[in-house]
Design goal:
Number of domains: 2
Strand order of the largest sheet: 2-1-3-4-5
Strand content: 5-15%
CATH topology of the largest domain: Rossmann fold
Order of helices and strands: HHHHHHEHEHEHEEH
CATH architecture of the largest domain: 3-Layer(aba) Sandwich
Shape: globular
Distance between the termini: 20 Å
Largest sheet: 5 strands, parallel
Length: 264
């Protein structure tokens, strides 16, 4: 695959948009999603302050999940300052200092900084995801994308608009994705590792243990290596792995390899 560029995240994300309005639309998905996540994180922070230490682990894990997803979404749409602030928030929880951070007000200040950075972008938040431009009679391949991050789903939808031979099905939960893959047997699956109902590795195990889906190509598309475990994938190993932020050419190369068709 192509050599990874040293340019920043914005150089990676900008080529997706045909014009400024399309790029603003992609970002608006992130803004709408992040508003919900930040509200939830403030609720979790309040819960953590009153939770017994023996029960704090579950709340911290949920906080970590939301911070990680927020960071990934910001990286997808090229908001470097938001990405870095979310990474600091994630690190604050990962280091096991979440309870102390709540008591000292550090967590609330970190959340406020992320909120402030998003507001300063001065872009109107929108609703819904970008629409695919279907080409009836040409969509001969099926790609399944499993990721609960709305911005990343919108990014993949934008990319696959360049491949009229490909039909996209997106899922935010692992269990729903497993059922869909078993029912449809897609040509290619892109899989995030952190999902709200189960880990991406659990999804992969389920697909590899089923004779009907064992040989479906699966690409892990994630910026997270936390919790990575040894998974027995024989005789059908993991197809590939792309780390967020990924090279657009690398993504499309995998699509073209497993979903052949007219790419003009």
């Amino acid at each position: 695959m192509g050599q990874r560029r040293e340019a920043g995240v914005q150089a990676w994300a900008l080529p997706l948009a045909d014009d400024a309005s399309e790029y603003a639309e992609l970002r608006s998905v992130f803004f709408a999603d992040s508003a919900k996540r930040l509200r939830h994180m403030r609720e979790l922070s309040a819960d953590l302050g009153s939770t017994r230490p023996s029960e704090a682990g579950a709340v911290l894990e949920e906080l970590l999940y939301e911070a990680h997803t927020l960071r990934g979404g910001a990286a997808v749409v090229g908001l470097t300052s938001v990405r870095d602030a979310a990474a600091s928030l994630e690190s604050l929880v990962t280091n096991g200092n979440g309870r102390v951070a709540v008591d000292d007000g550090v967590l609330d200040r970190a959340l406020a900084r992320v909120e402030s950075l998003i507001e300063t972008e001065d872009l109107a938040a929108g609703t819904g995801e970008p629409r695919l431009r279907p080409a009836p009679g040409m969509q001969t391949a099926l790609v399944v994308h499993v990721d609960d991050d709305g911005a990343c789903r919108a990014l993949v939808a934008r990319l696959l608009e360049r491949r009229p031979n490909v039909r996209l099905a997106s899922f935010g939960q692992g269990a729903r994705a497993i059922r869909a893959v078993r029912a449809e047997c897609p040509d290619l699956v892109f899989l995030d590792l952190r999902l709200p109902d189960m880990s991406g590795w659990a999804v992969l195990r389920a697909l590899r243990s089923d004779p009907g889906t064992r040989h479906v190509p699966v690409v892990v598309l994630s910026g997270d290596r936390a919790g990575e475990v040894d998974v027995d994938l024989s005789p059908a190993p993991l197809t590939a792995r792309l780390e967020k932020p990924f090279e657009l050419a690398d993504f499309l190369e995998l699509v073209d390899r497993y979903c052949p068709g007219d790419t003009t």
